[in-house]
Amino acid sequence: MRTGRLLFLALAVVSCGMNAGRSREAYRETDYAKAPRFKALLYYDDSAEQAHVQFDHQAIAFFKGLTVGEGFLLDSTQNLASYTLEELKEYSVIVALNAQPSGEARKLFERYMEEGGGWLGFHASAYNDRHTDWPWFVKFMGGGVFKCNNWPPQPALVEIDNGNHPVTKNLPASYVAPASEFYQWVPEPRENPDVEVLLSLSPRNYPFGIKDVVYGGDFPVVWTNRNYRMVYINMGHGDRQFTDATEELMFINAFRWLLERDPASLF
Ligand code: ZN
User: Fold this and answer.
1) Fewest CB within 10 A of the end CB: N or C in the chain?
2) Residue 222 to residue 104: CA distance in whole angstroms
3) CA nearest neighbour of 260 among 234, 229, 238
4) How far, in Å, is the centroid of ligand 1 from the Cα of 51?
5) Is the Cβ–Cβ distance between 266 and 260 less than 8 Å?
């Protein structure tokens, strides 16, 4: 598989070197249409709480659906530690559905990200508190640790913070996101100048929740840390996340934005 990828990249380089415009066209018409453009790795934990595993299974089906036509190769794993750094670097993006690395895999993930890796993290993949004991990850997330959440899971009005960003492309200024558990963070990620908040839970939701109620405060739900090729999406709890075209478009936009900034992919 590695040989195939290298050969593919070599073709692209030759193509660009000959004549950027015309060769690229020719390449698109022949090999480009046939060969996978990149590899993505789904990372999840099937032993997590039921609602997070429900999301995993639906998300795996969703991302598999995006490979129709074999536009890219999709692998999945529950054990990042089984990869070497070089093997991990073959993936343009790691899509973390509900898990974050532990033990030895933390250093591996740090190096992968520090050396240009991509990360699309959903919901519980970013959960951290005073027991997590992983300062690098807190910094990577923009500095926030889990503060509180609504309960039970429910739909929420979300608002776009930057409508000109590729992740929010073609989304309405606000929409009702399907039922999920939403996490609020402290300190608020927006306070970090390296963070760009892309979507937030609207203050019009407050008081938000029935058993566990959030009464106010800044509530970003999708953001990027500009120092990394990463997007965090707070949605990802339960079996309602793939019931809404607007939300699915946001997921695809985020996935695509990470890929198009990977110099090794052919986007
Ligand atoms: Zn949850």
Assistant:
1) N
2) 28
3) 229
4) 7
5) no
Mean pLDDT of the residues in the chain = 89
Please write the tens of the pLDDT for every residue from 162-172: 999 999 999 99
Distance 153 CA to ligand 1 centre (A): 8
Cα dihedral sign for 25, 29, 35, 36? positive
- Is the pLDDT reported for residue 257 higher than 90? yes
- Cα–Cα distance, 150 to 214 (Å, whole number): 6
Give pLDDT, residue 265: 74
**Neighbour tally for 30: CB within 10 Å:** 12
Name the E strands within the chain.
39-43, 73-77, 93-96, 118-122, 145-149, 154-160, 174-180, 183-186, 195-201, 220-225, 229-233
| Lowest pLDDT segment from 21-30, 66-75, 198-207, 246-255 | 21-30
Q: At what angle do helices 20-27 and 2-18 cross, to 10 degrees?
A: 140
189 alpha carbon – ligand 1 mean position (Å): 19
